UniProtKB/TrEMBL annotation:
PANTHER family: 3-OXOACYL-[ACYL-CARRIER-PROTEIN] REDUCTASE, SHORT-CHAIN DEHYDROGENASES/REDUCTASES FAMILY MEMBER
Organism in which the protein naturally occurs: Stackebrandtia endophytica
Lineage: Bacteria, Bacillati, Actinomycetota, Actinomycetes, Glycomycetales
Record keywords, A-Z: Oxidoreductase
This protein's name: NAD(P)-dependent dehydrogenase (Short-subunit alcohol dehydrogenase family)
Family (UniProt): Belongs to the short-chain dehydrogenases/reductases (SDR) family.
Sequence ranges assigned to domain Ketoreductase in this UniProt record: 9-198
Xref: PROSITE patterns: ADH_SHORT (PS00061)
UniProt xrefs under Gene3D superfamilies: NAD(P)-binding Rossmann-like Domain
TM region positions: none
Pfam families registered for this protein in UniProt: adh_short_C2
């Protein structure tokens, strides 16, 4: 079996409704590169509005749904609707996530649990449900967002529980890549360095930007477009022989 992506295909992008987030740019970039896109976000109205905006400048179908990625029943309902109403579901970009700037000694157990729940368990819930669709088509592309924070042990904005969850995503992705490869499904990670988005605690000031780029080889803070380019490539037909990879998009902030 060739395991080739169909020409008319759909990708889910989670967390794509934030005006200054990576997910929105990923959804836009995928739509511009031939994917039909299903946006899933906690805010249904914002997801639908974002989808309408992106669809207006795309030749493909872009739609929005509201769902909490930590709720298996809600995820199942939304994915089932996408399967019924859109072309074959063979792509998934796991972008939804939350930050955690709390110092470890001040960290509460509820915050720890919430970080793992959203940044790791939620990715599993969405991925497992979408993979069932991919297996039926014998092809798929999965890309999830980790972080330089997982590699360096924090040091950007978010701290310990965020780093732990994002490190867990690397092991999770490599394991599903091993199990799902026989079905023509690739699974990869993109690990951004400092990116100017709201998950960094709001727009970065020039002072904060200077603090980040001091350790980098490329002397600027990254943009959502930098990350989206990597994700779109890993989800493209040309990336079918790349799996279980962790691609750093960090301007040389960390090598590993």
């Amino acid at each position: 079996m060739s395991h080739e992506l169909p020409h008319n295909r759909t990708a889910i992008v989670t967390g794509a409704a934030s005006p200054r987030g990576i997910g929105r740019v990923v959804a836009d970039d995928l739509a511009r590169n031939g994917w039909n896109v299903a946006i899933i976000d906690l805010d249904a109205n914002q997801a639908e509005a974002t989808a309408r905006e992106l669809a207006a400048r795309s030749s493909t179908d872009v739609r929005g749904w509201g769902a909490d990625i930590t709720d298996p029943d809600a995820v199942d309902r939304v994915v089932a609707d996408i399967e019924k109403t859109m072309p074959p579901l063979v792509g998934l970009a796991n972008i939804a996530g939350i930050s955690s700037p709390t110092p470890y000694l001040d960290l509460t157990l509820p915050e720890w649990i919430r970080q793992i729940e959203v940044n790791l368990t939620g990715v599993h819930i969405v991925t497992q449900r979408v993979v069932r669709s991919m297996v039926s088509h014998e092809v798929g592309r999965i890309v999830s967002i980790s972080s330089i924070s997982a590699q360096r042990g924090g040091g950007t904005f978010s701290k310990t529980p965020y780093s732990a969850a994002k490190a867990g995503l690397v092991g999770f992705t490599r394991s599903i890549a091993r199990e799902l490869g026989e079905h023509g499904i690739t699974a990869n990670i993109v690990s951004p360095g400092p990116i100017d988005t709201d998950i960094m605690g709001g727009p970065l000031t020039e002072e904060r930007k200077a603090g980040f780029v001091g350790e980098q080889l490329i002397k600027r803070v990254g943009t959502p477009e930098d990350v989206a380019a990597a994700i779109t490539f890993l989800m493209s037909p040309r990336a079918g022989f790349i799996t279980a990879e962790n691609l750093n998009v960090n301007g040389g902030h960390y090598m590993g």
